Amino acid sequence: METARAVAAALAMVAGLSAVPASAETLTIEGLYPARTRAAADVESLVVERFGGRDGRALSFALEGMLAELSVYGQPYFRVVAERSTAPADAVLSGIADAVVESQSIEETRKECVEEDGNGKCLRKEDVKIKCQRRTVTLNPSVRMARIDDGAIVYQRQIYQRDQIVICPDRNASRSVPDTVDALIGNVVAEVRLDIAPVYRTESIRVLEVRKGLDKDQSNRFREALKATDRNPQGACDIWQALDGEVPGQSSIVFNLALCAEQRGELDDALVRYRQAQTLLPRERGINAAFDRINARQAAEADYAERETRVSEDRR
After folding, report:
1. What backbone phi and psi angles, to 5 degrees, belong to 37?
2. pTM of the model
3. CA distance 292 to 274
4. Which residues contact 177 (CB under 8 A, 6 or more apart)?
5. Tens-of-pLDDT digits for all 316 residues of the chain?
6. CA distance 10 to 177
7. How far apart are CA 153 and CA 147, in angstroms?
8. Which residue, 18, 31, 46, 236, could crosslink 225 as a Cys pair with Cβ 3.0–4.6 Å?
C-alpha cells in the first residue's frame, strides 16, 4: 500500500508537468511529447517479469501497475500481459533492484538554556552538540526491455535514486527506511514512465512585452492584450493580430502571434512566425525553445499516429 502511494505521488509529479497553471503574461501550450526512448514506445504489449533483488518484487509490481493504467489521449497505451499467461506479447521488461542503507554518526547544534532565574525563566542559552544518525538510502535498479521475437534490447537503464533520513534523540525521523525505499521506487517508476511512453504536457510560456515602435494607442491595446492572456487568451491573440496589421514586423507582436498559433495547435504556421521572429530577435532564447517544442510535438504525433494505425490493423 505504501509503495502504491509513493508511486502515485511520483506519477503526480510527472502529471504536474502537464498541469502548470496559466498566469498573467503567459500563454498555455498543450501537446503530446515523445518518450525519451522511442524504440520502447513503439512496443504494443509487454510482460513485466518479477525483478531480482530484495526490492525487485516491489519495483516490478509498481511498474506493472503503472503500465496497466498508463493512457494517452484517454486510451490505454500498453497491453500488459500476465507473466505466466500464454497470451502473445511483443516485449518483456526485466530488472533487479536492491536498496542500500548506510548509517553515519553526525552532530547537530541545539540552543539549550544554561541559566535560569528564580521563576524558571531562561536568562542565557548556549549552543550544545547532540549525537544523531544520518541514514542514506540508495536505490540504483537496472531495468531492461527486450523484444521477444528477436531478443533486441529496446530500452536499458540504471536509475540512480538517493535520499537521507536524520534521526536525533529530540526529533523523530520524518519517515522510516521502508517508506523511503517506497518513495524511491515511486521515483524510479516515474522515470521509466517518461522513458518508454509519450506524455501529454502543459506549459505556461511567457509572452514578450517590449512595445518599441508602437504609438500610445497601440501601446495601450498591447497592454490590454497582456492583461487578457490569463482570462481570455484568444482575445489577447485577436488584439495582437489587429496590431500586426497596423505595425507589421514589430518583434514582440510577431513572437506572440507565433505563440498564439502554437497554442491553437497550428504548428506549421507557428514555425513560419517563429522564423520571422528569429530574424528580428536573433538572441531571443524563447524562439529556440519553441522550435524544440514544436519539433518534439510533431515527432510525437507522427509516432503516435503510426503506432495507432499498426495497432488497429493488428486488431482486425
Report:
1. -120, 100
2. 0.84
3. 12
4. 101, 135, 137, 165
5. 567 666 666 666 665 554 444 445 999 999 999 999 999 999 999 999 999 999 999 999 999 999 999 999 999 999 999 988 888 999 999 999 999 999 999 999 999 998 898 888 999 999 999 999 999 999 999 999 999 999 999 999 999 999 999 999 988 888 999 999 999 999 999 999 999 999 999 999 999 999 999 999 999 999 999 999 999 999 999 999 999 999 999 999 999 999 999 999 999 999 999 999 999 999 999 999 999 999 999 999 999 999 999 888 776 6
6. 17
7. 6
8. 236
Q: Would you state the cell numbers that stand for residue 87, as one nine-digit string? A: 497470451
Task: State the Cα–Cα distance between residues 179 and 20, nearest whole angstrom.
Answer: 28
Three-state SS for the chain is: CHHHHHHHHHHHHHHHCCCCCCCCCEEEEEEEECCCCHHHHCCCEEEECCCECCCHHHHHHHHHHHHHHCEECCEECCEEECCCCCCCCCEEEEEECCEEEEEEEEEEEEEEEEEECCCCCEEEEEEEEEEEEEEEEEECCEEEEEECCCCCEEEEEECCEEEEEEEECCECCCCCHHHHHHHHHHHHHHHHHHHHCCEEEEEEEECCCCCCCCCHHHHHHHHHHHHHHHHCHHHHHHHHHHHHHHCCCCHHHHHHHHHHHHHHCCHHHHHHHHHHHHHHCCCCHHHHHHHHHHHHHHHHHHHHHHHHHHHHHHHC
* 192's grid cell: 521509466
